[in-house]
Amino acid sequence: MENRRQAVERNYNWIIHVVLIAASVVMIIPFGWMILTSFKTVTEATQIPVKIFPSHPDFGSYAKAFEKTDFKHYYLNTAFTALMKTVFPVLFSSMAAYAFARIRFPGRTLLFFVIISVMMVPNPVFYTPQYLLMSKWGLVNSVTALWICALVSPFATFMLRQFFLGISKELEEAAILDGCNPFQTFRYIMLPLVKSALVAIVIIQLLWSWNELQWPLIINSSPDKLTLSSGLATLVSMFSTNYPILMAGALMAVIPMIILFFIFQKKFIEGVAFSAHKG
Amino acid sequence: MNSRSRYVWAYIMIAPTLLGTVLFWSWPAFYSIYLSFLKSENFGMVNHWVGLANYEKLFKDKEFWKNLGNTLYYMVLFVPLTLVFSTFFAVLLNAKIRGLSAYRVIFFLPQVTMPAAAAMVWVVLFARDYGFINYLLGTHVAWISDTRFAMFALVIVGVWGAIGLNMLLILAGLQGIPKALYEAASIDGAVRFRKFRYITLPLLTPTLFFTTIVLMIGATQVFDSIYLLIGKTNVALPEVRSLVYAYYQNSFVYYDQNYGAAIVDMLLVINLILTGLQFAFQKKWVTYD
Amino acid sequence: MAFRKKAWLSGVGMTVAAALALTGCGSNDSNGGNASSTTNNAAGGNAASASKENVTLTYTIWDQLQQPAMEAIGKEFTAENPNIKVKVEVIPWNDYWTKMSAAAPAGTLPDVFWMHSGQFVKYASGKFLEPITDKVQAGEINMDDYAANLGSIYQLDGQNYAIPKDFDTIGLAYNKELFDQAGVPYPDDTWDYAKLAEAAKQLSQPDKGIYGFAAKMDTQGGYWNDMLANGGSIISADGTKSGYDDPASIEALQARYQMILDKASPSHQQMTDTDSTEMFKSGKIAMIFEGDWRTTDIDGSDIIKGKWNWAPLPKGKAKRGDIINGLGNVMSASGKHKDEAWQFLKFLGSKRAAEITAQMGAAIPAFKDTQAAWVQSKPQLNLQVFIDQAADATPYPAGTKAYPVWFPKESEIMAQAWGGKISIEEGAKQVAAMMNQAIADNK
C-alpha cells in the first residue's frame, strides 16, 4: 500500500512540474521579449506577422538610449539615493526601535504612536506637502530631494522594535551591570542580535528606493538629476513608440537589481517577505 | 545608572527618527488636509481659504466617482486573482518537489523588476497588430487601447508582479501547519482537495486575511503601471484612471494642487478604513500566533 | 491688453510674410551678418571680463533633435566667453511644462530656457521670467532684427521677456515611392482637402498595413489646421471663447475622422500603439501633417531617406489653414547668474546663433536673412514650403492664462472622440465647454 501511494505521489509530481514550468515560462516572457525587442530594428519590432528573433542583432539601441539620455547620471543618482535611503533609516530606526522596545521613559507610548501613525497614510498624500517643503528649501530639482524625506523610516522603526522585543533581557541586564550606558548596550549587545532583521530592512529599502517612480518624477526635472525609473519615463516621452530603444533602456534599468537578486536571492526573498508584514 | 539618565539616552536615541517623522511625514499628512481647503493661484504662490469648495466640486465631479470606481474595480479584480494564483502555486510548491528554489527565484523575478520597466515591455506585448500576446492567443485585441480590455491588461500586469511575493507568504503559512494534521487525515482517506478545503484553508485564513489587506492597500495606490501603460491620449484612460493618477494629473499637470489634495485625502480615508479593519481582525486572530 | 492681443493675432502672419519677402528668403547670403555678430561678441567679451567668475549656465530645451545645434551655439559662446560654460538639457515636450511648473514656484527654473507662446502669459504674469525691456531700450538688442512681429509674441503689459528663437509652420510630408506605386501625382499647392481625401483612399492598402494618410489626433500638427482651413477657429480672436463648437470646426474634425472610418488612415488605437510619424518613417503612411521641426528626424530614417518630400498643406473651404508659432528664449527671474545669462541670451538672439541653427537644419531661425540657409540645409527637400506658407498662416492660439489649463485637458477629451467612445461633435462640444470654463476660471 505504501508503494502505491508513493507511485501516486510521483504521478502528481509530474503534473505539478508541468504546471509550474508553464507558469514559469509565463513569468519570464516579459524579460525574454524585452531582450529580443531591444536587439530588433523598429520595423522588426512592429512587423506583422510577429517576428520573434531579430535578424541582425546589435547594440545600436543601447548605444542610442545611452547617448540620448543621461544613463550615467541615472545610475549614479539611483545608487546614491538607494544608499542614503538605506544607511540612514537603518541607523536611526535601529536606535529608536531599541529605545522604544527596551527603555521605559515618559511619553513612550505617545511618541511611538506619533511615529507609526504615518504608516497608515498612503504615500501620495505626502507628495504635495513634501514638494512644497523642498520648494521652500530650494531643493526642487536636486539629488538631495530624492532621499532627504526618507532619512527616517517609521516602518523600519516599527519592524525593528518587534525584533528587539523578542530578545531575552538577560544579556542586556548583564551589560547594564557592567556599567554600559543604554547606547553602549544597544551598540555592542543588542544590535548584533538583530543582524538578520537589519539585512532584511537594507534589502527592502534598497528595492523600494530603486524602483520608486512617482516622487522622483514630481520633484526633479533635469536629466542629470533623474533616477532610473523617472529616466525611463523621460525615455518614453522622447522616443514614444521606438520600442527597441525603450526596451534597451528598460533592460539597462532593471539589470543591476536582477544581478543583485541572483547573487543574494535567499536574503532578498526573506527580506521582501519580511517587509510584507508591514502594519 | 539612574532612570533619569536612561530617559535622556532614550530621547537622544529616538530624536532623529521622531524629528524626521514629524517634519517629513506627520506634518505633510496634516498639511495635505489643510491644502484641500485652499485655492491657490500662480503655481501655488498665492493661497486663499475656500472652505469645503474643493470637496463640493469633488463630490459633484462625475470623473471623481468614475476614478474611485476604477480604483475599487481594480482592487476587486486584482486582489482575488492574486490570492487564487498565489495560493495555487504555493500549494503546488508545498508538495516537496524538486527544484523548489529555482521556481521560487523565477516567480520572484517580477518582484525585483522596476514597475516602470515592466510596464514598458507590457505595452509591446499587448500591442494589437504585432503584440506577442495576440500572436500566442491568435486574437486581435487592442488590449491597452480598447475601453473594454484596458482594465484587464492593467490587472494582468499587477497580478504578474504580485504573485511571487504573495506565493511566498502563503507558502510560509502552509509550512507552519503541523504535518501531523495531514497524516491523521490521510489515514482517514481524505483526498487532496478535501484536505485543502477542510484542513489547509481554515488554518491558512489568518495569513490569507493579512495578505488580502496588504494587497488591498497596495491596489488603492496603483499609479506606475497606468502612467506608463496607458498613455495620455489613450481612449481607455477614463476607464482605468485611478485616484492616485487623478491626483498626479490635477496637482502637477493641471496646476490645481488643492483639488489634487482633496482627491488624495479621499484615498487617505479609504486606507484608514482598511487599516481599521486589519486592526479589528488582527485582535480576533491573535490566538493563532 | 485684449486690444494689443487682437492686433498681433491678426497682424503677425502677414507681417512675417512681408518681412520674409523683403529680406529675400531665396538668396544665398548667409554670411551677410558677420558685422553685427562681431559687435555682439565684443559686447559679450567686455561683460565677461567685468566678472571673471567661472559660471555654468543651464539652457533647457524640449527638442532632442535640436540638441546638437544648441550645444554648438553654446560651445561658440563659451569660446568667446571662456568663463561661461553652457549645459544644454533636454526635457521632452510631454513632460516639459509639468516640470517647469514644478520648478517655477520653487525658484529652480533653468537660467535660460525655451518658451512657448501658449505658456508665456502664465510665466510672465507670475513674475517667473526676467524682463529684458531695459536692454531692448538700451539698444543691446534690436527687436527689428527678427522676422516681423515674432518679438511681440513675448510682450506683456509693455514689457519684453523673450528674444525670438525660431518660427515653425506645418507641412504635408509624402512618401514618393507609395505615390509612384499607386500612380497618383505628388501633392502640390493646388491640392484641397477633397483631393487629399481622394488620394488617401487611392493610396491605402489596409490589408498590407499601408495607409494613405495619418488622420492623427493632434492639435498644431493636426486638426487645428483643418479647422482654420474650413473657416472655423480654435479660440476667438480676443481669446474669450472656444471655437471648437463652431459648426465649421466640427465639420473639419469630422472630415478628418472620416478618413479613419474610410480606412484611408490607421485607427486611433493603431496610432496609440505606434506613433504615426514612426509609421511614416517606416514607409507605412503615404501622407502626414508634420511640423518643419521633424525634418531631421524623418530624414534620419534609412527606410524612406531619399523617397519623401514636403508639400504645402491642402487648401480648405476658407483658406490654407496653417499654424505659425514662434519660440522664444527667456531667462529665469530667480537665476543666480543673471548677468551671464543675459550675455548668453543675447548671443542666442545673434545672427551667428541663427546661422548655426539654420545650417544644422535645426529650425527656421527668427533672425532676418537667415532662413535661406535653413532651406538649403537639406537641398533634396522642398523646405521652402514652410517659409512660403508663413504668408497666410494663423498664429498659434496663445496669449491667455487659460491655455496651460485647457491644453492638456483638450487631448484627453478628443481622445474619447478619436477612439470612438463619443461622437466627434460631442467631443468638440465638450472641449468647447471645458475651454470656456478654463477661460472663466483664469481671467
UniProtKB/TrEMBL annotation, chain A:
<feature type="transmembrane region" description="Helical">
    <location>
        <begin position="12"/>
        <end position="36"/>
    </location>
</feature>
<dbReference type="InterPro" id="IPR000515">
    <property type="entry name" value="MetI-like"/>
</dbReference>
<keyword id="KW-0472">Membrane</keyword>
<comment type="similarity">
    <text>Belongs to the binding-protein-dependent transport system permease family.</text>
</comment>
<feature type="transmembrane region" description="Helical">
    <location>
        <begin position="188"/>
        <end position="208"/>
    </location>
</feature>
<keyword id="KW-0813">Transport</keyword>
<keyword id="KW-1003">Cell membrane</keyword>
<keyword id="KW-1133">Transmembrane helix</keyword>
<feature type="transmembrane region" description="Helical">
    <location>
        <begin position="74"/>
        <end position="98"/>
    </location>
</feature>
<feature type="transmembrane region" description="Helical">
    <location>
        <begin position="245"/>
        <end position="264"/>
    </location>
</feature>
<feature type="domain" description="ABC transmembrane type-1">
    <location>
        <begin position="75"/>
        <end position="264"/>
    </location>
</feature>
<keyword id="KW-0812">Transmembrane</keyword>
<dbReference type="InterPro" id="IPR035906">
    <property type="entry name" value="MetI-like_sf"/>
</dbReference>
<protein>
    <submittedName>
        <fullName>ABC transporter permease subunit</fullName>
    </submittedName>
</protein>
<dbReference type="Pfam" id="PF00528">
    <property type="entry name" value="BPD_transp_1"/>
</dbReference>
<feature type="transmembrane region" description="Helical">
    <location>
        <begin position="139"/>
        <end position="160"/>
    </location>
</feature>
<feature type="transmembrane region" description="Helical">
    <location>
        <begin position="110"/>
        <end position="127"/>
    </location>
</feature>
From TrEMBL, chain B:
<feature type="domain" description="ABC transmembrane type-1">
    <location>
        <begin position="68"/>
        <end position="278"/>
    </location>
</feature>
<keyword id="KW-0813">Transport</keyword>
<dbReference type="InterPro" id="IPR000515">
    <property type="entry name" value="MetI-like"/>
</dbReference>
<feature type="transmembrane region" description="Helical">
    <location>
        <begin position="72"/>
        <end position="93"/>
    </location>
</feature>
<protein>
    <submittedName>
        <fullName>ABC transporter permease subunit</fullName>
    </submittedName>
</protein>
<keyword id="KW-0812">Transmembrane</keyword>
<feature type="transmembrane region" description="Helical">
    <location>
        <begin position="149"/>
        <end position="177"/>
    </location>
</feature>
<dbReference type="InterPro" id="IPR051393">
    <property type="entry name" value="ABC_transporter_permease"/>
</dbReference>
<dbReference type="Pfam" id="PF00528">
    <property type="entry name" value="BPD_transp_1"/>
</dbReference>
<comment type="similarity">
    <text>Belongs to the binding-protein-dependent transport system permease family.</text>
</comment>
<feature type="transmembrane region" description="Helical">
    <location>
        <begin position="259"/>
        <end position="281"/>
    </location>
</feature>
<keyword id="KW-1003">Cell membrane</keyword>
<keyword id="KW-0472">Membrane</keyword>
<feature type="transmembrane region" description="Helical">
    <location>
        <begin position="198"/>
        <end position="219"/>
    </location>
</feature>
<feature type="transmembrane region" description="Helical">
    <location>
        <begin position="7"/>
        <end position="27"/>
    </location>
</feature>
<feature type="transmembrane region" description="Helical">
    <location>
        <begin position="105"/>
        <end position="127"/>
    </location>
</feature>
<keyword id="KW-1133">Transmembrane helix</keyword>
<dbReference type="InterPro" id="IPR035906">
    <property type="entry name" value="MetI-like_sf"/>
</dbReference>
